Amino acid sequence: MSLAANARGDDYRAPGGLRTWLTTRDHKRIGLLYLVSIVVLFALGAGAAALMRLELLTPAGDLVTPAVYDRLFSLHGIVMVWFFLIPSIPATLGNFLLPMMIGAPDVAFPRLNLASWYLFVAGSAFTLATVLLGGVDTGWTFYTPYSTLFSNAHVVLAAAGVFVVGFSSILTGLNFVVTVHTLRAPGMYWRRLPLFVWAQYATALVMLLATPVLAMLLVLIVLERAAGIGIFDPALGGDPLLFQHLFWFYSHPAVYIMLLPAMGVVSEVIACFARKRVFGYRFVVAATLAIAAIGFLVWGHHMFVAGQSPWASAVFSALSFLVAVPSAIKVFNWTATLYRGRISFPAPMLYALSFILLFVIGGLTGLMLAALAVDVHLHDTYFVVAHFHYIMVGGAVSGLLAGLHFWWPKMCGRQYPEGLARVAALLLFAGFNVTFFPQYLLGYLGMPRRYHSYPAPFEGLNLLSSLGTLLLAAGYLLPLGYLAWSWWRGARAGRDPWRAAGLEWQTTSPPPAHNFASTPMVTREAYDYAGIDAHA
Amino acid sequence: MSDLVAWLPAAASAHARSVDQVFLALLAVSVLTVVVVTAALGVLALRYRAGARAPRDPRVLRSPRLEAAWSLLTLVVFVALCAWSTRVYLATLEPPADTLDIAVTAAQWRWRFEHPGGIVERGELHVPVGRPVRLVLDARDVIHSFYVPALRLKQDAVPGRYTSTWFELDTAGEYPVRCAEFCGTGHATMRATLVALAADDFAAWHEQAAAGASGETPAQRGGALFESLGCASCHAADSATPAPDLHGVAGREVTLADGSTLRADAEYIRESILAPRARVVAGYDPIMPSFEGQLEDAELRALVAYVESLAEASP
Amino acid sequence: MPDALVPSRPDAQAAARQAALLGMWVFLATEVLFFGALFAVYAELRHAAPQAAAAASSHLYREVAIVNTALLLTSSYLVALAVHAARAGADARAARLLGRTAMLGIAFLALKGGEYAAEYHAAELPLPGLAVAAPGDAYARFVDLYIVMTGAHALHVAVGVGALLAARGWLRRGHSAGARRVEVVALYWHFVDIVWVFLFPLLYLVDR
Fold first, then answer.
1. pTM for the predicted model, two decimal places
2. Please, which of A237, A260, C126, C168 could form a disulfide with C132 given CB 3.0 to 4.6 Å?
């Protein structure tokens, strides 16, 4: 194809010195820098989780002290939310692919893009320092007045880390919005944008509008703790519920920062392996934007038992049911995409299908938590823990793995080992369910979360959950191993091994530094699989 | 039905059973959805797998009618479930008259319960079956959450304000009370037992427990404080100082200086003692001094109880 | 957004300008939410304790704030003239105007600093670190919020002054993207002014 720059050695990874990587402005290299960083932080968060599940094997708190356990779940939450899930797909796959998918040579502000990664590294350094100095014990939620007056752990340091990393996601969001607006190739109209790009765009808007509230909140926490500025602490005249309102104003939309990009990946993968345009493209786009918008209006469902006005709770409950409608629409459209397709099942497709199933379960149990009467019982129990892991691990992590496998040949020009990858996808699905499904039952039976020890009747289900983590660990370690191996040793993949429709497949694998030898002209609708297969 | 719900945790109140019903309805809809989606994915994936003999259609398929149908169906089902659940919740919002009022104070990492008549319990809360019990909660340090799984009931205890909830048990027994909001290293062991006794047994327990207590109700102690702190000199019907007469105020709608209205509940009365100038009732000057820092928590509670007890009394 | 990627198109300069301005608008949207969190805290306080807020507000140095408001409004006018001049290619005039705008910003900061110092020395406000008996917690909380809100704004003014001076430098060195950058910086400066236009009545004029 004329768009491909085929000169041998014209690879974005050359020249390869460390210095060229650390000063790069190439969005693809920055995506990879992010990928390596989040894998390291994921390992840290997963290690903390493994220790927690080990502690919870038996009812007695006999492995670590309560103080250590509190630090473990706080570390797990802070690292997984801010240093893994939030940047997971946008900063890695989004950075790598978004410009290519719209036919652009790079993002709009390449230097800011690199700055974003450095901020991420700086924030991670704060978090690591927090761990080395003895950790933080407030949970990822930093609820006042515990965090401002009563905790004697390193709250200020941990908050500083999250504050800094918040700016890295603001910069990513800003870059994506401006890039999509200004750098689309000729013919790449909005109605032709791949759904992955739409998802990144909606996610970027949420990042831009929610993150600054979190940033200000963390400033206020630090001021209250360090300087006695009384905003939230009742002992200083403050209002702890105000903290919760502002915190969830960020942290609920943050769930959609994690989820929407994964939905974007699933749309690409399903379309490619069903050889069909996504059913109801315009409805899926509208649903994406609706989720991002309504997602800003549901934060109060985290506060049904906090002392919030019951009428406010009723409104938040109704809005939370409403936000589930566009999510359901997406599931139906993905399912309908399979109709009269020609379906194959390589690893990315397996991950995408397991995304749909786990997301459906996570979403429906989310409705139970949005239902006022039921949430009063389930709030702050293991039911909530199970629910958000179905969304964040079953959803966001399945999406990330689907995307990594799908675009792996594009990123390194080599194919991952298909057989092993399918085994890993099935292992992850099984391990995930064994680990987290028992937690739904524990929650309805009344086991609160963040418990270091627990009453004896809960032992069996906790044991099952802890054993599930063994399968889960295998499901994570296997891809880590074979993906790393295939980066150097995998079979060579061509320009477009999946015969996929996106612009990113029209350049070489791996792509050259500026993506395309000449600016592509877009003449087809998105997902024109009918056209591609007719030529084959 | 009873077999079906055998795995549900014990339910000790009518409300708990209504919550279970809402939950089971949500569960039924969820299971149905999961089965339908899984079946649809499975059937389509098998039938149209590459290599199978099946009709293919490379054209772009779209059906706004189908989209509208499933969007609308989802919306209707969701609205119905939400409405039902909200109704169950709102139905139990206002406690009935004649509740047994118990003050709950949460502190790292223990529960303290005070009955009318000055009976104080720690670690156990004795309540009668068949009579509504109202809890007024506060916390001495951080946020805690009073959670009784058997009642499907949870209420945060927040420092610096009163929150309240109520329940009516219909089955005698002992039920665990847990803290549901993370509150520090003792969070997991911050437990108590709710002991629900039949009316006769409760009366017997109460008689025995009252022998060791002062016998004074919080409202009585509050009345004494009201005199000794000098509140009565302004807050009297015939006082020269323009302060509101507090008879019949508690629980009523009051109009503030800025024209807004609010209900004079326990929390507003507490605030008016500690920060009297924050929200002043229309027609009065903001001249009352703050009692912030001058009252023990128990004294504050007694004063609030006294003002609440004036609700029924005529001036 | 000074380093906008220039696409290889005939209208490259226009596209770069569009990207830079859009980038700043998007950034300002995040700034609105950043201050929005503080305004939410403020609204809650005003709702919970209107009288205490009014009482605390009446102790602030209103006259200084009036002068400061005038300074910032004038500076917005000057920076608008600078954009006009830069677009017309009158680089020297634009650079002069930017310098004056920055001077007004510095004057604002000096007055604000003097205000903080006077408040601290007079010890009539319950500032953090001062043991002043305040008539109620809400009163002290209003003062705390005053410090945080004006402090966050002053930080933005300081950044804005830096940006103005940088833009002046680019113009003087005849940087090819100079005019574009002046526009972007001016946009930011207008935003900083607008925040103050909200802060002034909300903090200083509560009882009026």
1. 0.89
2. C126
